[in-house]
Each structure stands twice: as C-alpha cells, then as structure tokens.
Design a protein that fits this description.
Layout: H1 23-40, H2 47-60, H3 65-75, H4 84-96, E1 100-105, E2 108-113, H5 115-123, H6 130-139, H7 144-162, H8 165-188
Antiparallel strand pairs: 1-2
C-alpha cells in the first residue's frame, strides 16, 4: 500500500466501469484491511534488531534457531515474531563474523557465543533488549490502532453496502474529516 486511497474519499464516487459509483470502496477497504492485518501480525523489525536479539539471547544460554524465534515472540508478548528468513541468515552472518559457533545436538544446530560474541553482548548490555522496546510500543496505544482501523473499515463498508445516497455522502464527509484530523495529530507532534 502506498499510503493513499483512490480519489474521491476512500473510493466513494469513483467508478471502476461496473456502473456502481461505490465500486472503488471495496478496493480501498481491502487495502486498509491488508495494511492493518500486516501490522497486527507483529512488528517488522530491522535486521540490526534481530542481530541484537540473537546475541542477547545467546548470552543467556545456547539455543537453536526455533528456540530463538519463540523466545523473542514470548518476550515481546507476541508483538514481534521474527521469521526464520530473518533469524537463520543472521545466525549465519554471526557465525561468519566469529561471534557464534554452531554445534550439532539432537539433530539440530545449537548456537552459542564465542569469546568475541560474549564481548559484543557485554558492549550492548546497557541497552534495552529489542523485544522490550517493541513490547512497550505495542503494549500501549499502538495495539489499539489496527483494531480501530479495522472497525472503521467495516463500518465504512457497511455504509457503502446498505446506505442511502444521503448516508453515503455523510459518511464521505466524516471520513474526510477524520483523515484531516489524523494528519493534524501528526503535525502537532
């Protein structure tokens, strides 16, 4: 999603050639729903955060990749669950840098810090762990935002499906006002 919706206020008034002036609302609502679903499934963290999390966890005890993924998810309260596609390449990079070693145990590679890795973990010990910052962020008001957006999208779609032309115009005005007010909030801070 590029941050914009079809012109005409969430697609109201737009036509996709089907003859229905509200047809564009379905695409806009799908874009909004998809945007919030992507965000509510966990935060996407930067590669450096995955690296810091892996080093921090391995400073506590040796772990295999799946343990690292689940431990981050548990410690962030489910707000961040890194994918295997971000954890395993990070583990390989750390091994290439000589910060960790891998040992086969029970059919799985178990990773542990080398002396250089221990030194790296001590250098970052004063900083909060990456899962603490994401957990704090989503434990607050940010967790409510996707839910509110989905509820707004559902109400908008209901008006589009069942509203009279006058109700649709009133809904357009409400949504346009809400959009302006949201941008005003961002401008304040």
């Amino acid at each position: 999603m590029n941050g914009s919706f079809p012109s005409g206020g969430f697609g109201f008034g737009a036509s996709n050639g089907s003859g229905n002036p509200l047809a564009g609302v379905w695409e806009a609502m799908d874009q909004l729903r998809t945007s919030f679903e992507q965000r509510s499934g966990g935060s996407r963290m930067a590669r450096g955060d995955v690296r810091a999390a892996v080093i921090s966890l391995l400073a506590e005890r040796p772990m295999h990749g799946y343990q690292i993924i689940t431990e981050i998810a548990d410690r962030s309260g489910g707000a961040w669950k890194p994918s295997a596609g971000s954890v395993y390449p990070t583990l390989q990079q750390l091994a290439d840098e000589g910060l960790i070693t891998a040992e086969e145990q029970g059919g799985r590679k178990t990773y542990s810090l080398t002396d250089a890795g221990i030194a790296a973990s001590e250098d970052s010990a004063e900083k909060p762990a990456p899962w603490e910052t994401v957990g704090h962020r989503s434990a607050g008001q940010h967790a409510a935002l996707p839910k509110a957006g989905m509820e707004l999208a559902a109400a908008t779609a209901q008006v589009a499906r069942t509203g009279s032309p006058e109700q649709v115009q009133e809904a357009v005005a409400v949504l346009e006002d809400a959009r302006r007010r949201l941008y005003a909030i961002l401008a304040e801070g």
